[in-house]
Automatic annotation (TrEMBL):
Keywords from the UniProt entry: Germination, Lipoprotein, Membrane, Palmitate, Signal
Family the entry assigns: Belongs to the GerABKC lipoprotein family.
Classification via NCBIfam families: spore_ger_x_C
Membrane topology: Lipid-anchor
Location relative to the cell: Membrane
Domain Spore germination GerAC-like C-terminal: 221-378
Cellular component per GO, a single term: membrane
Residue ranges of every copy of the Spore germination protein N-terminal domain listed in the record: 25-201
Keyword Lipoprotein: yes
Protein name, UniProt field: Ger(X)C family spore germination protein
TM ranges: none
InterPro entries referenced in this protein's UniProt entry, alphabetically: GerAC_N (IPR057336), Spore_GerAC-like (IPR008844), Spore_GerAC-like_C (IPR046953), Spore_GerAC_C_sf (IPR038501)
Length: 386
């Protein structure tokens, strides 16, 4: 057999393989890309909602007009299980649904309240091979289709909202940290830990397009879980102290003093903390240490650097204690104090847990020590340095 015939046969074999692969392949314009999933539960049935985008509409290319109104398609399904409800969307989807670009999962508060074990939800979703683990996850009290249909400012795509991309807003103002599926599952499975799930809501017209009011997403609080079960929710204005005990916190704003007549506004950056458990007489109490740096954002009254540092430390201490007390009334360990005991002294945690001595008390926090160092006063110098 000549070398030319061998080459021809090789080419024909490659063409046949390529043709076989092409039978099951789909071009991107023939796929329905699911970018977010909403899950609800009512009367013993699961309701699912899928946010579907046309990626041609959201692509940022020279041919596409950035800032145009991007349409959002929402599919609805119902079933006795999560997967059955999602699969019930297929018959009317017209196109093959692709799940590899899911960036957000939204759980209704009704779902959280009625399920005995939240791990069942994520077991159903994560078993599907196309779905990834680094997906943002939230709770909400709002109707799921309303959340899923919200747009970003300037009519950017829904991929630029808090639902799919919360990190940019959090870097600028660290109030409630984003939560990811993989980390939430880890928190569910760690003994002694209170798992946290940020809650999304819709603003009441704080933004306008010209003179027309527009609604946008914002985080209105956090839902809490212990032993895989929902134990309650706190609104965002009762959680000021939590950010000082989160290593993810990048930047937050405070007034000094924290009352109706502030003397200055400070920006606190990258706080660091340590929690030391002290076990005595079958009781555990905690000493909290916080160190942070900051700078002056606005000066209303004439204060020295030392005085502003002192007042800032006092504000952080008050906020931490106030947040703890908000959870204390409902036995929600918002600050995850008992989890610190579990990680540092697991034998003591197991012993005290067995005899029921891990209940939060008014004096469970023994002391809070805060030190704030102001690094500069912005473009202006301080009025005086006393």
């Amino acid at each position: 057999m000549s070398i030319w015939i061998k080459r021809l046969l090789l080419v024909l074999m490659l063409l046949s393989v390529a043709a076989g692969c092409g039978e099951n392949s789909k071009s991107i314009q023939n796929l329905a890309f699911v970018t977010a999933i909403g899950l609800d539960y009512q009367d013993g049935r699961f309701y699912s909602y899928t946010q579907v985008l046309n990626f041609i509409d959201v692509a940022k290319t020279e041919q596409i007009e950035i800032g145009k109104n991007v349409p959002v398609w929402i599919g609805r399904g119902v079933g006795k299980t999560v997967n059955e409800s999602l699969a019930s969307i297929y018959p009317t989807s017209q196109l093959r649904m692709y799940w590899g670009h899911v960036k957000g999962i939204l759980c209704s508060e009704r779902l959280l309240e009625q399920l005995d074990d939240m791990r069942d939800i994520f077991d159903a979703v994560n078993r599907y091979r196309e779905v990834r683990y680094n997906i943002n996850v939230y709770s909400t009290k709002e109707p799921l289709p309303l959340i899923l249909s919200q747009k970003s400012v300037l009519y950017f795509s829904p991929l630029d909202t808090l639902l799919d991309n919360p990190s940019q807003s959090y870097i600028q103002n660290s109030i409630i940290p984003p939560q990811y599926v993989y980390r939430l599952i880890s928190e569910f499975n760690e003994s002694g830990r209170t798992a946290m799930l940020p809650s999304l809501s819709i603003s009441d017209g704080r933004w306008t397009e010209d003179t027309t009011k527009r609604t946008l997403l914002y985080m209105d609080g956090t839902s809490f879980f212990f032993n895989h079960q929902y134990i309650g929710k706190l609104p965002v204005d009762q959680m000021d102290g939590l950010k000082w005990l989160r290593k993810e916190t990048r930047r937050a704003i405070i007034n000094i003093p924290d009352n109706n007549n502030p003397a200055a506004t400070l920006v606190i950056v990258k706080p660091r903390h340590k929690i030391k458990p002290v076990v005595e007489n079958n009781r555990v109490r905690y000493v909290i240490h916080v160190k942070a740096k900051g700078y002056v954002d606005e000066m209303i009254q004439d204060l020295s650097i030392q005085e502003m540092e002192r007042q800032a430390a006092q504000v952080l201490k008050q906020q931490i204690m106030a947040t703890y007390e908000q959870g204390l009334a409902r036995q929600i360990d918002v600050l995850n104090l008992n989890y610190k005991l579990y990680t540092s002294k697991p034998k003591e945690w197991k012993r005290l847990e067995k005899i029921g001595r891990l209940k939060l008390e008014k004096d469970t926090i023994q002391d809070i020590q805060v030190k704030v160092k102001l690094t500069h006063t912005g473009k202006y110098k301080g009025r005086t340095y006393k």
